[in-house]
Amino acid sequence: MLAAVQAPIDPELMVSDPAESLQKLRRQWQGRCERWIFGYASLIWRPEFDAAEHRPALVHGWHRALRMRSRINRGTPQQPGLVFALLPGGACRGMVYRLRPENGDEELERLWAREMPTGVYDPRLLPCRTREGTVLALAFTLSRRSEAFLPHLPDDEVLHILRHARGRCGSTLDYLAETSAALRERGVRDREIERLVALARRHGLLQPEVRRRVSRSDEVSTSSSTPGSSSSSP
Fold first, then answer.
1. What angle do CA 218, 142, 21 make, to 5 degrees?
2. Among 230, 233, 59, which Cα is nearest to 139's?
3. What predicted TM-score, i.e. pTM, was given to this entire model?
4. Which of 34, 43, 127, 183 is 20 to 30 Å apart from 211, CA to CA?
C-alpha cells in the first residue's frame, strides 16, 4: 500500500531570488527525517551527490519536455541551448534520491548552484510514487509563463540548436543523448525523446560511439518497477 503523504503548506518554492528560495525550502524541510530529490533528466545520469538511497519513481500531473531555454549550462546568450523541464500535465517517470542526513545541507547547496544559477526553475515538493511507498521530493518545474519556456519548435530549429548550442556543462546534443540512454537503461520509454534522438541520427549529429551507446540501451526491457505508464510529451 502506498504511504500517505501530506502536501506541504507551500508546495511552490519559487521566488525571485534563488538564495531566498533555498532558505524557504530549508524552512519547509525542518523537522523532516528524510529529504528526497526527484531527477528526470541529467540528475539521473549525473546526480553529483552521494545519495543514501535511490528508487525509480513516478510523478503525476507533470511531464518531461525539452522546452526550456538554457543560456548557461547547455548554451550561451548568443546561442541558447535546450534542457528538459517538468511542465504541467501528464506523468513523468524518473528517480528519487534520499540525501544523507549528515551532509544534506551541503549537498543541497551544490544542487542549487547547479540547477538554479538564474532562478528560472520553480522548485516544488511533489508526491513521487515508488514501490516502497510515496515520498515527497524536491522537483525543478517550469511555468509556461516563464521567459525560459519555449513553445513547440519546428524540427529544423531543434536541429540548429543540437548542432550549435554548447554551454558550461556541454552541448545540448550530448545532454539529449545522455538522457535518452539513461532512461532506456532503466526501462523508461519516452516517445518524444526517442523521436529527437532518431532525428539527430538521421542528420548525422551523433558520433558513432554515442549512437552505439543509445542503441545498446534500446535493447533494455521496457518493464519498470515504477507503477503506472511511461511518460511522454502530450
1. 120
2. 59
3. 0.76
4. 43
Name the 3-class secondary structure at 57: strand
Burial class for 63, CB neighbours closer than 10 Å (0-12, 13-18, 19+): buried
Residue 2's CB: how many other CB atoms inside 10 A? 12
The CATH T-level fold of domain 18-218 is Hypothetical upf0131 protein ytfp (3.10.490)
* Grid cell for residue 219: 535493447
Per-residue pLDDT of the chain (234 residues; tens, 9 = 90+): 333 343 443 445 544 566 666 666 666 666 666 889 999 999 999 988 889 999 999 999 999 999 999 999 999 999 999 999 999 999 999 999 998 888 767 878 788 777 777 778 888 889 999 999 999 999 999 989 889 999 989 999 999 999 999 999 999 999 999 999 999 999 999 999 999 999 999 999 986 444 334 333 333 332 333 333 333 322
Q: Which residues of 82-112 are buried (b: 16+ CB within 10 A; e: fewer)?
A: bbbbbbeebbbbbbbbbbeeeebeebbeebb
Q: How many CB atoms lie within 10 A of CB 31?
A: 6
72-100: pLDDT as tens digits: 999 999 999 999 999 999 999 999 999 88
Opening angle at CA 38, ends 207 and 12, nearest 5? 125
| Grid cell digits, residue 32 | 523532516
DSSP 28-49: HHTT-S--EEEESSHHHH---S
Where are the domains positioned within the chain?
A: 18-218
